Amino acid sequence: MKIKLINSDIDIKKLFKKIECSKAGISIMKDKTKIYLFYIKNLKTPAANILKQDALSINAELAVSKDTITCRPKSVDAVLIANLKQLKLLAKKEKSQPFGLKNLSKEIEKFLKEKEHEIKIMGVLNANEDSFYEGSRFSKENAKEKILSMIEEGADIIDIGGVSSRPGSEYPGEKEEFKRVKPIIDIVYENSLYQKALFSLDSYSPKSLVYALDRGFKIVNDITALSNDKVAKIAASYKAKTILMHMKGTPKDMQKNPFYEDVIIEVEEFFQKRIEKALSFGIDDIVLDVGIGFGKRLEDNIMLLKHLKHFKKFGFELLIGASRKSMIDKIYPSKVEERLPATLILHQIAIQNGASIIRVHDVKEHKQAIEVYKAIKETLI
Question: Which residues are catalytic?
């Protein structure tokens, strides 16, 4: 007999089929292989004691303060540790319990419905001269060549932008934005490039968006997350996939001492409101972007990447765009031209934690990295 430790981040169904488990056995055992950790804030102490006992009764665990059993503190923080099977049982148990545990049950059930999506690369092209990375800029003269090159390199989506949203930047106005993006949109349309990849417009300008959506574009990438009702109406009328991004403030002031008590919870609350707004307009093809670098400190960006999976509870695709951003410079001092290696690491972590759309400046390098990552992930034993 020989034994070896294997990575649990593999296709469990394929692994069980390899050793010829029965279908019934696979159904029973697969839920036992996925472990969840939930950090629960301000849990009422009576609720904590009930949840502790219910967790133990199904061989799960709840880590709490040593004073919880005395009920001296009114509330405590706790960490719930459970596999998928236990979590399903616990969600049922807490539905009939008092002290807020019924609501906890509803929240847990949201995480049980998370969906898996294919990984897609969104290539960035900027039709302006003030974007933070020079390599993403292009002009009318080389637009077709640049777009075809990115598609050949592996881009599933091309995101066209005419306005910089780097920290400190100011919006030049709808007229100027339209002047920048119109020639590129025309090239996409006249050459039927929209048949080769999906096209997205990085804009919150109604005029530019209507022009693009009339000419083969399918995605609205709105960094203001539908702040403008006109944009919501346009996205709904074209049935466009709509990207909702979190940003604290505006590009001009977003990096002036941003602060969060809990960035995960605050971004979640923001998404909840904007998703409700999107749905109220009839938009249901939604992508969520936590907005790396948009009104965030380094620690906020790291927290969002590390715990990105939290936002899968909404059931929508997650987009991450950390490409060559200044958070890298804060960790390892470097010029924007030198940040590709760190970018690849950040995006790999994002994919591992639930992102399925990666917004990048370097398509070819990301395609290579993602294919290698997928090959390793899909390998069994």
Answer: 325, 359
Residue 86 has pLDDT above 70, yes or no: yes
Contact 310, 355 (CB under 8 A): no
Whether residue 68 contacts residue 49, with contact meaning beta carbons closer than 8 Å, is answered with yes
For the chain, domain boundaries: 34-111, 120-378
Listed in sequence order, the residues at least 6 apart from 256 whose beta carbon sits closer than 8 Å to its beta carbon are 249
| CATH class held by domain 120-378 | alpha beta
Count of beta carbons in the 10 Å neighbourhood of residue 203: 26
| pTM over 0.70, yes/no | yes
Task: Please tell me the number of Cα atoms within 13 Å of 194 on its side-chain side.
Answer: 19
- Which top CATH class is 34-111? alpha beta
**328-376 residue pLDDT tens:** 999 999 999 999 999 999 999 999 999 999 999 999 999 999 999 999 9
Identical fold for domains 34-111 and 120-378, yes or no, is no
SS (H, E, C) the chain: CCCCCCCCCCCHHHHHHHCCCCHHHHHHHHHHCCEEEEEEEEEEHHHHHHHHHHHHHCCCEEECCCCHHHCCCCEEEEEEEEEHHHHHHHHHHHCCCCCCHHHHHHHHHHHCCCCCCCCEEEEEEECCCCCCCHHHECCHHHHHHHHHHHHHHCCCEEEEECCCCCCCCCCCCHHHHHHHHHHHHHHHHHCCHHHCCEEEEECCCHHHHHHHHCCCCCEEEECCCCCCHHHHHHHHHCCCEEEEECCCCCCCCCCCCCCCCCHHHHHHHHHHHHHHHHHHCCCCCEEEECCCCCCCCHHHHHHHHHCHHHHHHHCCEEEECCCCCHHHHHHCCCCHHHCHHHHHHHHHHHHHCCCCEEEECCHHHHHHHHHHHHHHHHCCC
